[in-house]
Write a structure and sequence with these properties.
By secondary structure, this protein is of the alpha/beta class. It contains 14 helices and 22 strands. β9 (224-225) and β10 form a beta hairpin.
Length: 522
């Protein structure tokens, strides 16, 4: 496993050049309602809406921490480096794995500490701290959403070295945990398993200010084979027998799918009951079934092999966003990225977010290497597909290692400007009021002061200004009240800056404008 290498300060200086602008002295105050004094007749265009996220995997220490047993100070430093890198790349979210295998990367009364954090299952960080609380606070400080990523059924991963502790479900309820290949797996057909996983998710939702909860493609486990190459069936005989003896009439495969369906539907309903604004996301395997659409050829069938009917979940609207793992190249005719993306868009009966997953780590030389241009092209292909609104990259390590100048190519192309997370108006209605804004030129820079109005507090500020014929945008965390605006090298200072407040669901309030430089200043 390669150690995580974060974006270096020298690289940030190359990809994000900022030159101080000489701005003329001027102060303007904008009232909370009514027209904005000093505004140009032509308002700014809408701020780009695009979900830009990366998975931060803790299982096997893929992304964070870089290895088990690091001192808490090093863990925090690595998390800060990840979040700084995400913000510098103009991402707006991270998806952090907090439950890799019936364990926890945060203090939990339900499950033991993860060995991927401390090197020993059940061992707390020393000195004590709360990694998830720290990650949430640091992400929000940078204007990034943080989505908590759970594995609902895996009980042990082959990379784990320490023994299972007494508080682990494999010890407290061994009857619902099955050995399957090199894994321990919680039986999805057991009500106790469903209740435990749901309790874990709700515990995080209630105790932490997360923006979303997220599960990926692991439902029933990926099939194992015996030494002769024959498929080994998952050992769920006791739960299946109870179902049949209780009068159940579904065939076994349909019963397994229904077990997963019930959990997905329940997760959406119960998360919304706890906190309606927390988004629920699912990242299934990227192909629903072979020949869907017709040209797609694969030997793997998630519907039959993982008992995951992801098309049903999308058609029923049992999530706020779907991130099917479209881990194939654009030119792969039998599993083409844009062909699959279009198919998923066609299933989206409720108009929920479609933010496909990209195998960005394939650019790294340790993998079946793709050029960075493939990822740039996939982001652009997503933009070209009606109904799709962003991407989730696997994983953050690819950006840290920056193979083939991946970071520079994204920043020179589709990620040149920041973007707001797409709005989710079904979460709740309303919008922040028009902010009160002041601008003052100080030492050749424009100092912007923003005050929210109305009942809804901003989660983000969106600042827009025009330089020549080009509109520029900054997306800032909503807790900020003051921001120093600098022109880019070779660009004139902004004369007028427009400021909009955006709430947690992405609802955007009316813009206020303020003159940041005297007419004719540059």
């Amino acid at each position: 496993m390669l150690a995580f290498a974060f974006i270096r300060p020298s690289l940030l200086r190359r990809v994000l050049p900022i030159a101080a602008a000489m701005l003329s002295a001027c102060v303007m105050h904008v009232p909370a309602s009514g027209p904005s004094p000093g505004a140009s007749a032509e308002g700014p265009p809408p701020v780009r809406r695009e979900f830009r996220a990366a998975w931060v995997a803790s299982v096997a220490n893929i992304d964070w921490p870089s290895r088990p047993g690091l001192a808490p100070e090093r863990q925090r430093a690595e998390m800060v480096a990840i979040l700084d890198s995400a913000a510098a790349l103009h991402l707006n979210a991270v998806v952090l794995q907090v439950r890799p295998a019936a364990d926890a990367l945060y203090p939990s009364a339900l499950e033991p500490w993860s060995e991927y954090l401390t090197g020993e299952q059940g061992k707390a960080p020393d000195p004590a701290y709360d990694p998830l609380l720290f990650a949430v606070q640091e992400a929000h400080r940078r204007g990034l959403e943080l989505h908590a990523w759970f594995n609902p059924y895996r009980a042990s991963h082959p990379t784990e070295k320490s023994p299972v502790v007494a508080s682990h479900i494999a010890r407290t309820h061994p009857e619902v945990v099955k050995q399957y290949g090199k894994y321990l797996w919680m039986d999805p057909g057991e009500r106790l398993v469903q209740d435990r996983s749901m309790a874990v998710i709700l515990d995080v939702v209630r105790r932490y200010d997360v923006d979303g909860v997220h599960i990926d493609d692991y439902f029933y486990p990926y099939p194992e084979k015996d030494s002769a190459g024959a498929r080994v069936d998952f050992p769920d005989g006791p739960s299946w027998t109870r179902y049949v003896q209780g009068g159940g009439r579904l065939p076994r495969d349909d019963w397994r799918r229904e077990n997963v369906n019930l959990f997905i539907r329940r997760m959406y309903r119960e998360v919304k009951a706890a906190k309606p604004w927390v988004k629920v996301g699912i990242s299934p395997f990227g192909i629903w079934r072979p020949r869907n659409p017709e040209q797609i050829v694969t030997s793997f069938d998630q519907y039959a092999d993982l008992y995951a009917d992801a098309r049903l979940w999308m058609r029923e609207g049992w999530a706020d966003y779907f991130s099917p793992q479209l881990y194939w190249r654009i030119a792969a005719t039998q599993q083409s990225y844009p062909v699959l993306l279009r198919w998923w868009s066609e299933q989206n009966a409720h108009g929920r977010h479609l933010w496909p997953g990209n195998f960005t780590s394939q650019v790294m030389p340790t993998e079946a290497t793709w050029p960075a241009a493939e990822i740039v092209a996939q982001v652009n292909a997503t933009r070209g597909q009606a109904g799709a609104g962003g991407n989730v990259h696997f994983s953050m390590k690819a950006f840290g290692m920056n193979p083939d100048s991946l970071v520079e190519k994204l920043l020179a192309g589709p990620y040149a400007e920041p973007a707001l997370v797409p709005a989710s108006p079904w979460l709740y209605a309303g919008a922040p009021g028009r902010p009160r804004v002041q601008a003052r030129s100080v030492d050749g820079t424009a100092s912007i002061h923003m005050e929210p109005t109305g009942r809804d507090r901003p989660t983000w500020w969106a600042l827009s200004w025009r330089t020549g014929s080009t509109w520029r945008t900054e997306v800032l965390p909503g807790h900020l009240r003051d921001y120093t605006l600098r022109a880019r090298t070779g660009e004139a200072s902004p004369a007028v800056v427009w400021v909009r407040a955006v709430d947690r669901a992405g609802n955007e309030g009316p813009a206020a404008s303020v003159r940041a430089a005297a007419p004719g200043a540059s």
